[in-house]
């Protein structure tokens, strides 16, 4: 079978290597074998593949994996041969409050991931995929989809009529746009591209703002929302957080899920306190969260936005496309 490894971490994307290796063993008790059919690219995966996150030499890439169960080990009752399944970002976090603060047990980072055609792993590392979804669509759930779901539904307790601010048009933000609109919320979204903002409008965005041409976009969103939005899904970090606080209403919620503009910076603590905003940092979600999300997706009338698809052996090219920032929504690789 084919798999993509980080053969030379010091070479970045040039260090990715496609190898032909023996397939994994038949599943033992409690395990399943999955024929992986697709993965999707995330900013975290890019950090590993580019060498920024200093992966171990030989690490098999990719946190997201969707495919078909090809064999079932003794004692496994939740899956059967032929079931369509999706991997977990934190396979050890089954339920309850967060207990993880690093990626040491995240596939594609601390442990081997899904850039391979077959895996044999514990059944608890997967959930079923939504009925009727393609493998490429399902592969977008593990990281981007579940992060958006947890930010809006689990942490912010989104309800119909709420106003939401989303930053940018990457995988998490577009997923959040679709979830929010499916649940009856009003959505404002930012981008530096008017073309991407037009695409966001076609997906239901109620208000758009180009943060390049409007340096006071936080105030602009606050004005649109008549005193501030209820919820912000904050993917930028230090360069955008002050604007997000300005855009948020008194007593609102900001869920920090990304560090696209850096790992640290100044926070306007006085304004945060004055507006009594709840600021929560999250990383993806648990097995239980993903099960709940999949059930919800089967009732929502939308499909994830996939910008472009590559082959497994074109993974380095796919990351370079992600690096360019041209994409709107998700980038996938299909096997």
Automatic annotation (TrEMBL):
<dbReference type="InterPro" id="IPR020843">
    <property type="entry name" value="ER"/>
</dbReference>
<dbReference type="InterPro" id="IPR013154">
    <property type="entry name" value="ADH-like_N"/>
</dbReference>
<protein>
    <submittedName>
        <fullName>NAD(P)-dependent alcohol dehydrogenase</fullName>
    </submittedName>
</protein>
<dbReference type="Pfam" id="PF08240">
    <property type="entry name" value="ADH_N"/>
</dbReference>
<dbReference type="InterPro" id="IPR052711">
    <property type="entry name" value="Zinc_ADH-like"/>
</dbReference>
<dbReference type="InterPro" id="IPR011032">
    <property type="entry name" value="GroES-like_sf"/>
</dbReference>
<dbReference type="GO" id="GO:0016491">
    <property type="term" value="F:oxidoreductase activity"/>
</dbReference>
<dbReference type="InterPro" id="IPR036291">
    <property type="entry name" value="NAD(P)-bd_dom_sf"/>
</dbReference>
<feature type="domain" description="Enoyl reductase (ER)">
    <location>
        <begin position="12"/>
        <end position="333"/>
    </location>
</feature>
<dbReference type="Pfam" id="PF00107">
    <property type="entry name" value="ADH_zinc_N"/>
</dbReference>
<dbReference type="InterPro" id="IPR013149">
    <property type="entry name" value="ADH-like_C"/>
</dbReference>
<feature type="region of interest" description="Disordered">
    <location>
        <begin position="1"/>
        <end position="24"/>
    </location>
</feature>
């Amino acid at each position: 079978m084919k798999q993509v490894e980080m053969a030379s971490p010091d070479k970045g994307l040039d260090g990715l290597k496609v190898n032909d290796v023996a397939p994994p063993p038949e599943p033992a008790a409690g395990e399943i074998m999955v024929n992986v059919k697709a993965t999707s690219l995330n900013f975290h995966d890019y950090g590993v593949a580019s060498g920024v996150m200093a992966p171990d030499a030989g690490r098999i890439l990719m946190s997201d994996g969707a495919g078909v169960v090809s064999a079932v080990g003794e004692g496994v009752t939740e899956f059967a041969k032929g079931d369509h399944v999706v991997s977990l970002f934190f396979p050890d976090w089954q339920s309850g409050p967060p207990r993880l603060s690093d990626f040491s047990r995240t596939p594609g980072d601390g442990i081997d991931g899904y850039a391979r055609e077959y895996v044999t792993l514990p059944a608890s590392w997967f959930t079923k995929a939504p009925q009727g979804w393609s493998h490429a669509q399902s592969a977008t759930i593990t990281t981007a989809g579940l992060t958006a779901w947890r930010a809006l539904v689990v942490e912010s307790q989104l309800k119909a009529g709420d106003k939401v601010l989303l930053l940018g048009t990457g995988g998490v933000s577009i997923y959040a746009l679709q979830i929010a609109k499916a649940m009856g919320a009003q959505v404002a979204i930012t981008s530096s591209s008017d073309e991407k903002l037009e695409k966001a409008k076609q997906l239901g965005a109620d208000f758009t703002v180009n943060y390049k041409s409007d340096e006071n976009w936080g105030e602009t969103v606050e004005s649109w929302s008549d005193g501030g939005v209820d919820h912000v899904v904050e993917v930028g970090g230090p360069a955008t957080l002050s604007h997000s606080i300005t855009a948020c209403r008194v007593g609102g919620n900001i869920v920090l899920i990304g560090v696209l503009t850096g790992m640290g910076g100044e926070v306007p603590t006085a304004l945060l306190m004055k507006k009594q905003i709840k600021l929560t940092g999250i990383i993806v979600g648990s097995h239980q969260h993903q099960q709940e999300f999949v059930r919800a997706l089967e009732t929502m009338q939308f499909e994830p936005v996939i910008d472009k698809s590559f082959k497994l052996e074109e993974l380095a090219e796919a990351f370079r496309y992600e690096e360019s920032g041209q994409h709107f929504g998700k980038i996938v690789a299909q096997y």
